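Sequence in, structure out. First:
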Amino acid sequence: MYPVWFPHVSSDPSNKSEIRRDPPATSWNYEPIATDGFAKWIGQKLTDFETVYGDPEEVYSSGFSFVIHQYFIDDQTYLEVNTEGNRITSIKFLGKENTDIAPFQFGMTMNELAKITMIYPNFTLNHDGKIIAFELMEDDMNYRPLIAFDNGTFAMLFFSQKKGESSLYSVMYLDKETLLQLEPYQLTDGVSSRFTMEEDADWEIINQNKQEQSKNLFQFLRNYDRLPEFILDTKNQMLGEQILGSFFSKTEDFLTTERTQQLKRIQSGTEDGRFTLSRSEMEDVLKEFSATTASVYLELPVYDPTFTILTWYSTPYLHTRFMHQDPESLGIAFSKENVVVLLQKLENKTEDSDAN
């Protein structure tokens, strides 16, 4: 399923959904580097972390067994911590303070990273007595390499394309369990575990929290790229929610039988990977709502919005789509593990307002 992540490679993900690539012709497995920076906090108590970084600004449930804590340091820094119980399972950091991400530095290039450590394409992990292996594809190697530390934790390094040559803009530290549950890379052996959905969770509140969190992060990244912020309006938000609800209430109207079955396999966990709409499927969805001038992006499963948006931002095709120079109206709708992002050109929104 992994090529579905990259529509610029294949405009019709249904054509390549069953392809499995063999690992590169090498027996090298990864070698860890010395633990440093935020990697030291993975697995530690949240209460100890907060003696250093203070109390979070926002805390809410993800609905999938972990809790999300957001910290405010300054308007140029984004810090988010996930926990299970009182134990830290992942840390996501965007900013300018390099001490916390040593031995890495924000703005460093891949060539500079290569002076610190080799970038490994293959990872083989022993998890609960089972072997799980995955492979980093070309885009992963260039924009989302994975680094292992000698305390058993990992870091995903996110590189942007805003200046021609990619540069490091964010780091996500995580434990082995979270890495396997998020499944950011192509599995080549074994079966990944999935996050457990909390059936008694208040999904209305959780969905609202994730929508706000995602909008704030998108605005942060727009500012990072020195672009005008998205316009947030109720009409576009409501349209995004309607599209999400309509798609899942009558999926067969938008997808072929083969694609519908693929969607069901991914939803049930019998097939790995993520589901996104092809270009023609997106057009059919927008026609249903007479929103042909808009752009819609649907993906599932999405457990951790910040991780997903950082991945979009470091994917060349999606970075280009979400980081247009011109101002646009943004709507984001969540329904448990499903998300829709709706973008509308600002001039079209203005014309609609004038017409009303």
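Second:
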Amino acid sequence: MSKALMARLDRLLANLGYGSRKEVQALVAAGKVVLDGKPLKDSGVRIAVDAALPERMTIRGVPVDPPAPLVLMMHKPLGVVCSHKEDGEKIYDLLPRRWRLRDPALSTVGRLDKDTSGLILITDDGDFLHRVISPKRHVPKTYLAKLDRPLDGSEAETFAAGTLMLEGEEKPLLPAKLEVVDQITARLTITEGRYHQVRRMFAAVGNHVVDLHRERIGGIVLPEDLAPGQHRILPAAEAETVFADG
């Protein structure tokens, strides 16, 4: 049985975004940090850190945030960017402020552009992030696309062929699966992550995407009760289902 990771209390809470080490020390001195029902008195004490910590520790009467590694799903709304550097409202602005101060920092697992809504994963686990986005994994992603013009019936065969070339590229796309929902709506599953891929695929067959929403990544499906802008923490076992085809 592996030993639990041990960490100094003040450093742990500072890394979770609860303030500087000095501010954390003040929290502890004021009796605001409680572990196993008892207020902690020493901010330098070393404690065991694992996924069960939020069940054992409270800060100001509220369960402590989960320690790293953390994976969460979010329903990304329209108009929000996924980059730390782009202008405009950022996806990280939708998280609790202290989460933006965590170390290691939270990052999106891939991106959705400003005009695309739906499922996105966010994590501070670099290994998990790189496993999901690795080109070798071919993790499937499913999008619901509303189109400007009616489908002509040839798109599914074209996308499935594995020969479609996007403008400006020299390598054909891997086969993709298209499901017709109605005349102007289609569900498309791809296993790559090229720049604006779904929009460019429909452009290549003479159509234009007017609304794009991601429903699924691997075995993780966006819950119907998760409203735009809301997020949900994923237990480790559930996060790993991203590698299932669903």
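Remark: The two ends are 32 Å apart (CA to CA).
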